[in-house]
Amino acid sequence: MPAFAELRGAALHWLAERDAVKKAAGVRQLARDGLLGRLTLDVDIDLPELPAIPGRPDKPELVSPRAVPHRGMNTPAGRAALIHAMVHIEFNAINLALDAVWRFSRMPREYYADWLRVADEEALHFGMLSDYLDRLGFAYGDFPSHDGLWALALKTQHDVLARMALLPRTMEARGLDVTPGMKAKLVQAGESEIAPIMEIILRDEIGHVAIGNQWFNWLCAQRGLDPLGAYTQLVAEYGAPAPRGPFNFEARRKAGFSEAELAGLV
Predict the structure, then answer these.
(1) Which of 56, 72, 101, 255 has the fewest CB atoms lying closer than 10 Å?
(2) Does this model's pTM top 0.85?
(3) pLDDT profile of the chain (266 residues), mean per 10
(4) Is residue 110 part of a domain?
(5) For residue 34, is it within any domain?
């Protein structure tokens, strides 16, 4: 595994890595190196974008969200398909966190430490879910998936405020709402061993959305913007999906959403 000296360049390297297992392992090592103070950080450099990011394996086949087949919980393949979708989300989440590290320059140093931590935890989630999928006799890549998360990342690549608003605060916050129900369905269908994994994921994702909230509000303050108004404008400008219920208000509160924002959801 290559050794790196500078954090943002290393994040770009692992973003371009096509092998999912190598990417996850590389990110986990990168986070350890950062924690041990082995990496420098240049917040001012504007790194040139590599031609093929994000790096992904040949499979899964990427299709439109409407073309992803629906599978019921009453068959092993159906349950595996749902878990596979979760694995794919975590793989995309690794890429999104790495992209947040390398792409946006001249942010406070704490910003990069936060998103490196997110990448590390997403890599952990990917590994736990991949291992579980393997125990069911399937592997990442066995089912078609869609690319909605990265499509929105491309739209927001020129503005860190839009990225913070629409990825962690919108798309990832949706995960806070749906994870408890998905866990209940899988447990009811006989996959009880996945429950503690999903509890870890929900706990960590609350922290990830909180990081998005923190930096969105910081950026609004820096630019003299009202967070509620700025968020509404960004959702409309970028065509982000509107939040839809049911909502996990407890998790959203823990993630730092204001009471005014929560009231706006209903």
Answers:
(1) 72
(2) yes
(3) 88 97 98 94 94 93 80 88 96 97 98 98 98 97 89 94 96 95 94 97 98 98 97 94 90 96 89
(4) yes
(5) yes
